[in-house]
Amino acid sequence: MTNEKKLIEEMAEELENCYGRETELTERARKYLSQSKDKKMKSYDPSIYDGIHTIEITLQQWEYVGHITQRIYGTCKGNTMLDFDFDCEDDYLENDCNLKYHEEKEYFSATLKDPDGNTLDIAGRSYDFNNMIVKMEIVDYRRNEAVPGCGKS
Question: What is the pTM of this model?
């Protein structure tokens, strides 16, 4: 458990002890802990020839945040995988922000959330959404099992 998570858990326990019961604040703290997965990649295997990268793209306006997850198959590696452009994307992308592409009027919409669960509805063209990207990270890389023999050393 990271120091931040440990501190939040200690604060939640202290509040619970102080009030003698779970409070809304302790519930929110524990919910945060259960939702925040350790997305840090443990290993980036250079021997994989044909792999699957999982890229997490973070959108943000003020304190409101949303995430898009994209899987990229192939032989490229490293920073070449961190090339995302809404101009080239209108297919389904896994996300936690209700991202939608409205083909008839060629715009995107999404709902970002702040740490308290408040929401911000946003809409705009591809360049507007590109300007909201604040982070891109490879969160997983594994062998593409659909390609026999590739990447095995």
Answer: 0.70
